[in-house]
């Protein structure tokens, strides 16, 4: 990940939260006070986003020390202390919400991704994300998917061709769409096309495509599509797949399943920042 990009993302988040200053903390905490706080997990899950925590506190005060007590991708249980921060108490509290917002969100994505990966244990099928991400946070959210054991699909429109239903309609048909893409971009660019029906699958098998996205097909249709493709083209199932339905889709024999759910509906992992009492050992 480009460190300059990460710095900009965190700077924007801190500016949004800090505004004219942390009125509560500045009124209650002496400027010279030093403290220690712990990031503690309240539920079961997988951690992602510790780089972000470090960057939050680095920008606020480079003298703050962030000690990682686990790694991104690590499974955790309630009560697990995942990081310790020490330094000016004002800084620890001022950075709390921004650090937690990122950490909880990214760990939630990693956790649900791991849940789906576990559901597919024993099957030769990848768990893929989509571009259904929070605007501006795509790289972080896709990194969280990797931390959970998933695989990244396209990062953006320039990372491969995906011919979807609206493209097909605009081009005048599936064959025309594929031929136009190949004419414009040549053979070095991978082309994936969407197929909503078995008839489109049959048409795709006559075209120069590298992958077929089988969209919104039920398990019976998926199984029949995989049978007809017979390993000639890489297959991906997509459309309405959730952690609960993931295994049924994967058991049809597709090479991958993509879930927008991973990034647009994953619940945050409950994590808190607890400041140690002055008299606490």
Automatic annotation (TrEMBL):
Top-level division of the source organism's lineage: Bacteria
UniProtKB keywords: Glycosyltransferase, Pyridine nucleotide biosynthesis, Transferase
UniProt xrefs under InterPro entries: Aldolase_TIM, NadC, NadC/ModD, Nicotinate_pribotase-like_C, Quinolinate_PRibosylTase_N_sf, Quinolinate_PRibosylTrfase_C, Quinolinate_PRibosylTrfase_N
The UniProt record lists the keyword Transferase: yes
A family per Pfam: QRPTase_C
GO MF terms, alphabetically ordered: nicotinate-nucleotide diphosphorylase (carboxylating) activity
E.C. designation(s): 2.4.2.19
Segments forming domain Quinolinate phosphoribosyl transferase C-terminal: 109-274
Reactions the enzyme catalyzes: nicotinate beta-D-ribonucleotide + CO2 + diphosphate = quinolinate + 5-phospho-alpha-D-ribose 1-diphosphate + 2 H(+)
Quinolinate phosphoribosyl transferase N-terminal domain location: 22-107
Pathway(s): Cofactor biosynthesis; NAD(+) biosynthesis; nicotinate D-ribonucleotide from quinolinate: step 1/1
Family: Belongs to the NadC/ModD family.
NCBIfam families linked: nadC
Role description: Involved in the catabolism of quinolinic acid (QA).
Protein name per its UniProtKB record: nicotinate-nucleotide diphosphorylase (carboxylating)
Organism: Salinithrix halophila
Phylogenetic placement of the source organism: Bacteria, Bacillati, Bacillota, Bacilli, Bacillales
GN (gene name): nadC
